[in-house]
Structure formats: structure tokens, C-alpha cells
User: Fold this.
Amino acid sequence: MTRPISHDRAGSQRPRPGPDARREARLEARLRAGLRGEVRFDRFTRGLYSTDASIYQVEPLGVVLPESAGDVRRTVELAGEHGTSVVVRGAGTSQSGQSIGRGVILDTSRGLDGVLDFDPAARRIVVEPGIVLDRLNAFLRPHGLFFPIDVATSSRATLGGMAGNNSAGSRSVRYGHMVEHVRGIEAVLADGRRAEFRREAGPEGAFGASAASGASGDSLEADMRALYRREAEELARRVPDVPRHVAGYALHRLGREGAGLSDLLVGSEGTLALFTALELDLQPIPSVRALGVCRFDGTGEALAAVPAIVQIEPTAVELFDATVLGLAAQMPSFERVLRQLGEDGSGPPRDILVVEFAGDDPDAVSASLSQLESALGGIAVGVTRAESPVFQARIWAMRKAGLSISMSQPADRKPLAFIEDCAIPLERLPEWYRRLTEIIDRHATHAVWYAHASVGCLHVRPALDLRDGDDVERLRAIAVDAFALAGELGGSHSGEHGDGWIRSEFLEPMLGARLVSAFGEIKRRFDPEDRLNPGKIIDPPRMNDPTLLRARYRLETRKLPTALDWGAWGGFSPAVDMCNNNGTCLKRSPGVMCPSFRATSDERHSTRGRANALRLALSGQLGEDPWTSPELYEAMDLCLGCKGCRRECPTGVDMARMKVEFLHRLRAEQPLSPRDRALAYLPRYAPLVSRAAPLVNLRNRIPALARLGERVGGLAADRPLPRWSSQPFSLPSRLPAGLPARDNGAPRVALFVDTFTRYFEPENAHAAVRVLARAGYRVEEAVTAGRPLCCGRTFLNAGLVEEARTELDRTVRALGRFVARGIPVVGLEPSCLLTLRDELPVLDSGPEAAEVADRARLLTEWLVEAAALDRLDLAPLPVRRVRVHGHCHEKAFGADGPTLDVLRAIPDLEVEPIPAGCCGMAGSFGYEAEHAEVSRRVAELELLPTVRKLRDDEWLIANGTSCRHQVADLANATGRHVVNVLDAAAFPP
Assistant:
């Protein structure tokens, strides 16, 4: 990927007019000198941190990534000296705008993510605020413990953010809010002093040092308790009596037995103190879980059933409405689970309640499911029992993606989070649904409904387009009406996601002027100069203030000709805007998204970071010619094109395709380097180079040639390049002995042999011919006049869209002849064959191309679909176990399953997939000198450690040529294409 023209970094920053510029520069310099962590004040980073998962966008002064509690204290001190506010941030998934602001952003998610102390016998742990919930639970799992506040964003949500928000989650009907599980807090106050706040007496020195005394600790406790006593009657009168209520400051909790100031700080949204450590209570993991998926004819009917369900004491009751289910059915990762839910003949579900029971007695859990079925007899359309852990995991994955699924509609109006937090008494839920639907209808829009039915906190998201001035007014009007209705029904307008800029201005209508005044006293006592996250809870702006809305930055749509067809999204800009910053791409657990972020832990190298970079470019925030800016290049450069986001991003962002569009535009200004040109045009010159294969392969045997290649061509000297074959594949005129002669009456299969298979690993294509012949098929090679066919993948990777289109035109003509006659088209290399299925439709909209895209299959897919495995008469292998590493594109298209199915057809063979993401090679990425280290780091996440543990009696299966080279080069291991394994089983020695 050719690097763009270099610009002066300082000169590329947007000027900051006014007398504050010098003061801000001094603050940046002092922060750099005084902190161990990283300090970023550049324009690009400010842009990336100007948004969270809310409707707002505000550019900060700069970003600090602290590495210690000392860094947090020093940042607060220096910011105070320079008159600047501080906003703390975890994963940046706040839906109410809590994690953005105009001051210095403190991102705790990179350097403050450790476990400080752990006592499994006491079920107690002390963690830093940046640790991610899923990572914490992975640490606890071997001890039979977990932290039970299971928010939907658990793969990236930090414990500090959860405490700042007083998060709850799907199982709050049993486990309550975050505040019930925070035993103590170590924090930095607004003046930079350290303080410790506890719910109750705990172990001596739980946070490793004595707490601050005097004004910062003891006197704050005394003042807050006095304030509670003064306002106790008003609190009892005004605070809603519902399970979910997190509005304002939790002053009412100080009246509970054992409460301490930690109860007040939890849910304070970073406005009172900045957390540097949390002492948490843990829970034992239930040994048995089961789900009852209850299907209803409508949302109202589902909600009417909730009170009866709650009487059975479930651990969760979650709602999915028809809109969410319909959108989920269009996503490869969720279509399968919805199909399973309709397998009883009742058809796809309309509205469902997912009811979970958990415990340590399997019989009791099963009995609860039976009781659920009895209770809903005649009420629900049906109840599906999900007792398999795999089935349950798929259902919960769909639930966790609920918000983002609702945002995945390619329409101007998007379901927005602003009234989604109302918590209503259970017996009033049907009335809430009916009357709120009337309000939404009256404002000429619609909404999606889902989430926590068990506690009356339904996430209701009306669809609005905030680029439309009328919809900006509707935003506020709907909020006013909805919050008034919630109060009338005895509910709260903030049940889980906090106040932020969305709901803070509505605290007074719900709680009254007196309590809001008391909240102001709390803020002034902790933060007299309003330095910590100003404008949240106290003295907020109007929730639809146009100077805060992200929509004020309009993405350019008129002057943006594109090389690919983005019509399904309404254009390239709307496709970029599909990213709602939910941060699924920030997860650290195994999966296909996002390998570069997992390797670097850098926001710039996440799918969200790249989408925000493109958004900044399209809205003019990166200058007049953003496409050649170093900032945008830096964000796009480490995208491996793995297509993990295509599968796992709940809003359907396809960053690999966006990178192709970006590179195409870059090519207009920046010509290809010699190396990138050589890689892109490899299919064109491959026939010639293969004739000199022995000479070309000397590069791998002579270190001096490899070093010269790195110095001149940019290919890493320590990575052997793929070995050219001097005998590239051609269809043999005669089949090997033991196979039947070609029978003109036999069913035919067209084999699409890609460039990499033909010129580097022709043995795979020969194995495919033998396997297909053994199954009774006549193999024909898809060819055309002149050079062999090509999918155009290498050209797309370089942004040469027209060259790719030329190759695909040839390929479509050749394959179309087979498709027209009903002859199957199969291929071996996932990245090439699946290019036909994915990129071909956006490069060629003709009917012949559509037919080819629809009919092209990987060999494994076709063998399963055609039921051809039984014809192979497979024999046992010399090994008893295989470990399977799926290619990224196979996973993105759900095409990895057939590989497992095919292997399981081999007698006596144990088949186990490797739970790993991308291998890190990604075509030529791992060979490029500037990317080699990141390539290694990606591979080391899961794949290489697993490969190194393979036993002598195990084989590694990897269908991607890049994957096989990666494990060979970095782990000295042999990866086999599945077709070679089938060949061995079909032709035993």
C-alpha cells in the first residue's frame, strides 16, 4: 500500500484561533514531560475521540492514555492549572454522551487494565478501571467465579465505565446494578488528590496505600450523610420505586444499611471523581443454564406475559420485537439461530421473550422451563427450549447485538437512543407500550423495542434523521412526552444508560427542583470549579443543542463518484455512517474482528476508528484534500481486509470494501510503488515467471538477495516468499490409475483454479480433480482464451478497481457458460472464490455476473450441498485428530462450517476448530516489511500458540494459502488444504 505524500504533522493540525492556543500548547508539553503514558493532541486523534455511541460529537482538546494512577492524578493537576476540564473514557460506548467533551480525554482502556488483588475464597477482586468485562470473567472462570453485571457490550465495556454509569445488564432481575457489587473505590478528586471510598469495612490497605484524609475523604463522607438526612423525606417522596433507577446522583442509597460514599460515586458519570481502582464482589458461576424462547403474535402480548414469567424467578427476561428479528435474519451470524427457532413448524418468530433460568440443580432448571411452558399455554405461540450451551450462546450473541442490529437499516432515519432508558413498573408495561406507541405515531415515526423486560427497562428507539431540522425538534418533543408518561406510570427516565447530555436536563421534571439543587451541592462539594466532565447531570445543555449533534457535520454525497456500487447502502457516505460507534470491533476475545486492533490496542486501528476517520474525511474535518492525508492513510493502512467486520459488525460495516474504495481514490493522486505494482499484477505475469521458477526461488535460499529485496522492494527479508512451481496446474488429459475413465455421461463440475493454486500449489488442484473423479464427476476446468482466469483480488487490494473489473469480466464470461448449463462451479482458495460472491456484484450488476456470484461455491460447500460425500467411500486417516483454522473470508461468509462437516465424514476422525481469528498474513500484508511485525502479533494472539502445541498425531487444516504460509514461516508447521485430506482418505495407501 503506497504511502501518500508526507505532510508536516504540526501544519496538518487545524488551527486553534484565539489567545488560548499558547496555553493549550503549554499544557500538551507539560503532559508529555510529566506522564509515563501517551499524550496525543493531533487533529486526527481529537477527531477519533470526538464521538461515542451517542448522537453527539464534540472535539476534545487532546487525549491522554495513562499508564498508572499517578498519570491520572498528574493529568488532573495539570489540567486544573491550565483551566481545562477532564473527561474519563473507557470503551467509548456511552449512549448518552458521557465520554466526550471539550477538555482532555483520559482513555483508561489501554494502560489501566490490570488485576491488582484477588481473593477467590472471599470472592473479592481489585481491578484497574480499564479492564474489560469479558477479560475479567475469563480470568475468573477457572476459579468458578464471575462478575455478574453482564452488559451487552461485555466484549469491550470497561469496569470503570460500568461503575461510572451504574450499569446493569440482562440478568439484573437477579443480580441488580453495578453499585450492589462495588465494595470500594480508589479515586482521584478534582484537585488531584487521592481518596478512597468504601461501602463497608474491608481488608486493610485494599488499594495498596492509605486514603487521603481531611477535606478529601472523611469530611466528604460527613457532608454527604448530612445532606442525605436533610433530604431523606424528599428522596422518599420523589425517587421512583422501580428496580432500575440511575438518574442523577444516588443520594437516596446513603439511607441503606452498610452504604458508603462508593454508593454515591457509582453512577456519577465521572463528574465527581476519577476512578483508579475498584474493589468488586464476585458471584459463583451457575453450573446449569437454560433458555426458554417464547414466541408471541405481538409486542403487547409479550409484555403482558412478563409479570407471570417473573414469578417463576428467572435470571433474565429479554424482549426482541419483530423489527429487530427481521434485521437479524438478514445477517449471516444470526440467520442460523432464527432458523433454528422456527424449526418446529411455527415459522420465523415475530416477537419473542428470551427467558433464562440458572442454578446448580439440572432438574430444578428443567422444571422451571416446564413451568414456563405451562404458564404460557394459550398465551404464547410456542416455547423453544434452548438447553445446549452452543444454542444459548448464539441467542445471547443476538441479544447483545440488539442496539446495533436496530441501527443496521440503510435508511436516512435511524433508531436513536434517547428514550430507551425508561424503567416502568411491570404491571404497567402493556400500558406503556400502547401509550408510547401512540406518542411515536403522533410524531410521524416508528420505533424498535427490545431488551430488559424482566425489570421494565425496554430499549425503545424511535427512528429519526437528525440532519433534518424537523426531526431534531421531534427528538425533543418525543422525549418530553415519553418522560412525562414514564413519570405518570411511576417509572424512571434513566434505568441503565445514565443521564449524560441526553437526559440530564429532565432531572428536575422527574425529581423536582429541591433534589436537583441538592445534586448541585454534591457537585460543588466534590468539584467546586466544574473540572470533571462538565455539563453532565449538573448544568446541562439542551438535549438537542445543535452545536453538540454529530449530524451537524454533513457527509459529502454530491461530489463523490465511486468505483464500487454502494447502492444497497444508499451510497458510500451512508455506508460509512452505518457505524454507530457501538465498539464491537474493540473486543479482545477470539473472533474474526478486528485483528489489527487486537494486535495494537489502538483506536486508530479498529473498524470504528477507520469508519470515524472516513467520516471525518467525508465531512471536511481532515482538510480540503483528505484522501491523501497521512492521518486517513494511517487509519486504513493496517486494515487486513479480513472481512471480519462484514460478519461481526452488527451494523454491517464492511471496512475491507471501504478500503478498496479509499485506495482507488488514493491511486488518482499517488501512483503505485514498484512493489505494490508487482504484487497487484502478479496474475498477469505469473505465466512468464513460472517458466523461470528455479531462478526466482533462489531469493529464499540466498540471504543477500532477500536483504536486497527488502531494501529495494520493501519485502521483509526474514520471510520466505511463496515458492513458484515450475509445473503450474493444467487439467490432465488422463486420470491416474484406479480412477474411472472420463465418462461423457457423468455429471460435470467446473473447477475454477485461482492464480495462487495454479502457480504455487498446483498439487491442491490435482487433488481436487482426483476427489471429484472418485465421487463420479467429470471435471472441466474453467478457462478462456489466453492467460488463465483471475478473480481480481490482487488488483482490488491495491485499489486498481478497473483492472479487477477487467479480470472479472473475463472470468464471468468463462464461468457463465457453465452456470447457464446448470454445471456447478467450485473453487479452492477462499479469498479468490468468495471474491466472486462478494465483490463481483458491486463491480458488475449484469444478470450473468449475478448468476455466477450466486452459484459459485467452495469445494467443501458444494460437497455438502450436493450430498457428494457418500460417493467418496472415505477411509480412516493415519492420524486420529485434526485441528481446523478457518480462513477469515470463510468465516465472514459462514463457509467454514462445511469444512468441518466434510472432515467429520471421514471415519474415526476427531475434528476440532481452532478458536482463533485472523492468521495475520492477509495476502501480501505479512510479507511487507512495514507490516511484518503487526502480522506476527496478530498470529501470536491465538493461532501460533495453538499450532505449537499440536501433537505428532494431529494435522492442521488451513484452507487459505496465506494461512498455510504463516504457520509454516512462524511456527515451522505444515498446514493442509482440506482437499488434500479428502484425497488421502479417498485414496488410502
Observations:
- The CA atoms of residues 469 and 546 lie 9 Å apart.
- The radius of gyration is 30 Å.
- Residues 218-238 form the longest helix (21 residues).
